[in-house]
Design goal:
elongated, 8 helices
Length: 213
């Protein structure tokens, strides 16, 4: 039989919801997941669109670009953690998410532009998107109350993966609303959705300045 945490039932998440600093990192992690899985879900379709607009160019195929983006995620997370240690966790995460949002908008704005510019932007975006991941989880755990750490981590994952599912759907709606995947303005709308989502992360982190209740 699983032990019931002191002061509530096993699935009573109210103690976590009242922990404002932990919730700040949970919500910011949700915006991170929103951006990450929206990007991963639609990256192959986006690069297929880029290739179709540059017939005959010596561009890497969509699977190669997707593979490179996945490989870059490993050092990106390590770099993000190092930045947190050097400049402070909240500040580092905030700057990473702001830069990531600006990069997403740049990709969208240049969607109909030179392919090699887009390749550089996409690979840079592949670094900024996952760079805050480890720091967000570490921040959540640092504020989690010892008797509710498991419940806090469960809510962290639920919010993160819930917003991940929403992301792919909203990006698809944005694409359809602007003419589909073969239109540059549709990709501006799509990357605008990702940028808007992750920009909510720094706003959520402001909650971490309040003391745990």
């Amino acid at each position: 039989v699983l032990p019931i945490p002191t002061g509530g039932h096993l699935l009573d998440v109210r103690p976590v919801l009242r922990n404002r600093p932990a919730m700040a990192y949970i919500l910011s992690y949700g915006t991170h997941c929103f951006e990450l899985y929206g990007f991963r879900t639609w990256l192959v379709a986006f690069w297929t669109f880029v290739i179709s607009r540059h017939q005959g160019g010596s561009l890497p195929d969509a699977m190669t670009v997707s593979f490179l983006a996945s490989i870059l995620a490993v050092p990106a997370s390590i770099i993000g953690n190092e930045l947190s240690l050097r400049f402070g966790r909240e500040r580092a995460i905030t700057w990473i998410q702001v830069i990531s949002a600006l990069t997403a908008l740049s990709v969208g704005l240049f969607a109909g532009g030179p392919a090699w510019v887009l390749l550089v932007l996409i690979l840079f975006y592949a670094i900024t998107v996952p760079a805050d991941s480890g720091s967000l989880t570490a921040g959540m755990l640092s504020y989690a109350q010892p008797q509710f750490k498991g419940l806090t981590l469960a809510l962290h994952s639920t919010v993160g993966f819930g917003l991940s599912a929403l992301s792919g759907w909203l990006v698809g709606l944005a694409l359809d609303s602007q003419g589909g995947t073969q239109e540059p303005q549709a990709w501006l709308a799509a990357f605008g959705v990702l940028a808007t989502g992750v920009m909510l992360g720094p706003l959520a982190l402001r909650l971490s300045r309040h003391k745990t209740t």
